[in-house]
């Protein structure tokens, strides 16, 4: 029997299910025979599927060269059955007949890459990021900005970093830590008892900033704070430490990499370039957050994240520069960290050489000795 109406539960894709449910059609599905979900015209659903595919793939007739002697199109291409396999269309209630019915109802013209002569945006960004990481680790440490080429398939390091910042800004990753936010810092080198001051829980003095960290190289200190005392302790890789609770005194603008928005699916209404850019940003964030063993390679493997941090530090985001970067903890699943660009003057530890004395951006509220259970 021909399928006239199909229900939302016949599809595993969340966007397709949501779209069909939004029509709130009558119950009674010709594909699965059940009455538990809203339905929509089968032809409309097939059209939606083709429209979604058409935003991420091209048509061979428009893209690929054709040689009769070679047996058809030259280049990678898929017929409708192959394309549904390529996109892994999920049909949880299907016994095989629904898949065939959808494929046979689609247009006959084969599909191909969106632009067979160019990389997709996410692939171009990912390839350029990999080249950037190799360059700053093994080729050029400082004057690397114009290495490589700028075209649709690749970016120079300077253009790549600008793209990452623009994407982050465009999807709303600039957030504010409001006044009153509580953050923690751990100091394993402080005594168990004794009076502590803000200077003890600020960034390390320049002469003691000798360690390479995720966001800063030796000699350029940053202030690393955590969302909880336990997270701060775990970040030291110690079992006990003196921890200080600090309170935010002014709104702090941060680039927030803690939880990126989900990548829109093929059958959502999201812009294709937005989805591809966000897909790359997920890979980028995962890459710079990957735990790095504290061995002889730590000074090398942290370099890409350190360079990115330096770039973000002065980038003119919408609304101005940021005060730091927030990211998920790799040592405590429920916690997160923030690397702040605040110096001793911002924290009230030092008096400026000229100008008015600013109000401290953070205040030390209390300290305690913490031992992990």
Round the mean pLDDT to the nearest integer and report it. Answer: 92
Please tell me the total number of domains.
3
- Estimated helix fraction: 25-40%
Main β-sheet description? 5 strands, mixed
* Strand ordering within the main sheet: 8-12-13-14-10
Low-confidence segments, given as residue ranges, are none
Tell me the span between the first and last alpha carbons.
65 Å
Computed CA radius of gyration, to the nearest angstrom? 27 Å
- In terms of DSSP E residues, the strand content is 15-25%
Helix/strand structural class: alpha+beta
Verbal overview:
The chain is an alpha+beta fold and 373 residues long. It has 3 domains: 5-113, no CATH class; 121-170; 174-371, no CATH class. 31% of the residues lie in helices and 18% in strands. The protein contains 11 helices and 15 strands. A hairpin with a 7-residue loop joins strand 13 (324-328) and strand 14 (336-340). The termini are far apart. The model has no long low-confidence stretch (mean pLDDT 92).
What's the structural blueprint in terms of helices and strands?
Blueprint lengths: L4 E3 L6 H10 L15 E3 H15 E3 H4 L2 E2 L4 E2 L3 E2 L1 H7 L10 H9 L5 E3 L7 H18 L18 H14 L3 E4 L4 E6 L35 E4 L2 H7 L4 E9 L3 E5 L15 H17 L9 H4 L1 H11 L10 E5 L7 E5 L21 E10 L2
Parallel strand pairs: 12-13
Antiparallel strand pairs: 1-2, 3-7, 4-5, 6-7, 8-12, 9-11, 10-14, 11-15, 13-14
Helix pairs in contact: 6-9
Give the tags.
single chain, five-stranded mixed β-sheet, alpha+beta, 15 strands, 3 domains, 31% helix, 373 residues
């Amino acid at each position: 029997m021909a399928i006239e109406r199909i229900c939302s539960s016949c599809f595993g894709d969340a966007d397709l299910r949501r779209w069909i449910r939004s029509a709130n059609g009558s119950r009674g599905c010709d594909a699965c025979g059940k009455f538990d979900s809203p339905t929509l015209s089968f032809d409309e659903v097939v059209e939606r599927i083709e429209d979604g595919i058409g935003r991420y793939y091209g048509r061979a007739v428009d893209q690929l060269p054709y040689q009769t002697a070679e047996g058809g199109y030259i280049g990678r291409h898929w017929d409708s059955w192959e394309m549904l396999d390529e996109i892994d269309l999920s049909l949880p209630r299907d016994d095989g007949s629904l898949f065939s019915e959808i494929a046979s109802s689609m247009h006959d013209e084969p599909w191909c890459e969106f632009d067979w002569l160019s990389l997709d945006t996410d692939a171009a960004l990912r390839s350029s990021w990999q080249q950037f990481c190799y360059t700053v680790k093994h080729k050029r440490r400082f004057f690397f900005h114009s290495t490589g080429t700028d075209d649709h398939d690749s970016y120079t390091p300077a253009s790549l970093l600008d793209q990452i910042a623009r994407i982050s800004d465009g999807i709303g990753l600039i957030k504010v830590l409001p006044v009153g936010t509580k953050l923690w810092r751990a100091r394993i080198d402080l005594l168990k008892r004794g009076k502590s001051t803000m200077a003890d829980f600020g960034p390390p003095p320049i002469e003691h900033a000798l360690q390479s960290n995720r966001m800063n190289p030796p000699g350029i200190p940053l202030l690393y704070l955590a969302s909880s005392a336990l997270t701060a302790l775990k970040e030291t890789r110690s079992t006990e430490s003196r921890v200080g609770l600090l309170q935010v005194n002014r709104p702090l603008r941060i680039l927030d990499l803690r939880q990126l928005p989900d990548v829109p699916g093929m059958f959502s209404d999201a812009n294709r370039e937005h989805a591809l850019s966000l897909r790359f940003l997920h890979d980028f964030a995962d890459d710079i957050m990957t735990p790095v063993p504290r061995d002889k390679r730590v000074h090398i493997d942290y370099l890409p994240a350190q360079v990115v941090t330096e770039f973000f530090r002065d980038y003119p985001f919408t609304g101005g520069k940021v005060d730091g970067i927030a990211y998920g903890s790799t040592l405590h699943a429920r916690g997160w960290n923030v690397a702040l660009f605040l110096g001793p003057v911002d924290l009230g530890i030092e008096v400026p050489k000229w100008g008015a004395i600013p109000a401290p951006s953070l205040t030390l509220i209390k300290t305690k000795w913490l031992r992990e259970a």
